[in-house]
Amino acid sequence: MLYQLQKLSSEEQTSVKRSPIWVTLLVACADFDIQEKEIDRAKEIIHIRSYALQSDLKNLYEELDADIEQEIDQALAAIPAGGKDRIQYLEEKISELNSIFSKLDSTFYKQLYTSLKSLAVAVAQSDGGLFGIGRISDEEERYISLPMLKKP
């Protein structure tokens, strides 16, 4: 278990650990069509962060990277089939973090928030566009700032 999450209940720990997956799926589902490129980009970023980060988040990404395929499969199985229902479900899952943030060390909270936002942008940029123009769709643009999360 990550020492930063020791104060949390097991449900809260799971929410924090799965938050990169939920953010990935929110952005990928924003245009109601999950592209494999988006999922692959998220896996790549999670893997890179599992060894390249010099912050407390490194352990979170290491744990997630070890079971990434299974975590994504479980998350995909849990989300509703309908486009708008998916978005609403994912927004609710990500919003759960707001009540958890106050229980976390402020440095870890800020790092997690920043990391999730940068992951959202990277997933959005992974698909679409022509020669790098218009890579982020209007639907994705609405979610990459993660408006459902409280800013640290």
Structure description:
With 152 residues, this protein is mostly helical. It has one domain (17-143). Helix content is 68%, strand content 0%. The protein is built from seven helices and no strands. It is globular and about 35 Å long. The mean pLDDT is 85.
What general form does the structure show? globular
Unreliable segments of 5+ consecutive residues: none
- The arrangement of helices and strands along the chain is HHHHHHH
User: If you average the pLDDT, what whole number results?
Assistant: 85
What's the N-to-C terminus distance? 24 Å
Note the main attributes of this structure.
globular, mainly alpha, 152 residues
Topology:
Blueprint: H1 10-29, H2 36-52, H3 57-66, H4 68-78, H5 83-101, H6 106-125, H7 138-143
Helix pairs in contact: 1-2, 1-4, 1-5, 1-6, 2-3, 2-6
Short recap of the structure:
This protein has 152 residues and is mainly α. Helices cover 68% and strands 0% of the residues.
